[in-house]
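Hey L., structure's done. Input below.
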Amino acid sequence: MTQDTTREETERAPPLSQAGRRRLRRLVLGISFIAALFALWQVLTTVFAYTDDAYVTSDLIPIAPQVGGVIVSLEIADNQAVRKGDLLAKIDDTPFRLELESRKAALRAATAALAIDQGNPPVSTDDKIGSGQIAEAPAAAERVSTGIAEAVRTAAVAEAQAAFKLAEWRLSQTEIRAPADGIVNNLTVGVGEMASAGRPLIGIVKSDAWRIVANYKENYVDGLKPGERAWVWIDTHPWRLYRARIEGVARGIGRSPEETGLLPYVAPTTGWIRLKRRFPVTLSLVDPPPDLTLYMGADARVLALP
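Output:
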């Protein structure tokens, strides 16, 4: 009785409407499309290595004076291009010129004292006092004393010369010059401020060290080799691709940001999602156009062909 009732209910069940069939067809097509895209992505990622975790960088040179003092002249402006050897700023050289004059006078005095001592005959290493030379003892002792005095004067001259050269070098360091070609970046120092030895005052972005650093997932790293070609998209110049070459792949990364910094650290999470570890890959642009302006820290995307 139950089976007959079930059969009757099934026979009486209305067929799917045309709208329902369309919805089911769209659902099946959607799932198939997503599966096809996933399969295509898996195939493409075995042929192409793509990352959007990349950026433009160069070398930032912190310019720190070797001597301290008040800045009396600033010869540059923010974002200005400079050449190696260009004068950037001047420190008040008054105390350093006075120190140089003092060291020069000390050197002259030491040199004059040595010249006076050298007017006496030097001590011979063969001079020995024997039983037949007792009468010569006072003269020999005087020669020994004179030789010691001359050695002391010679050492004093050498010391004065070193002090003079150091003072001369310190005076030359009151002019701060560019160590390389580049662009002055984020200039905040001004005339009248106190410069401290060893404390950076000016930053210069080198103009000949531009490169792209792309952080690649660890499953890509083994297939990326120096010399292989790649394409770079730079967000400051959208809709243009630039040819690039892989220069090197990092052989190690830090596992935590608290490490020494000798190893690069790439955060493996974004929000609450944990990502695969990524390794920095350095690339250089191949024959970039002469009008291409690069900006340190700009985002980039890289497609490599391992």
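Residues 137-172 form the longest helix (36 residues). Residues 121-130 have pLDDT under 50 and may be disordered.

-- N.
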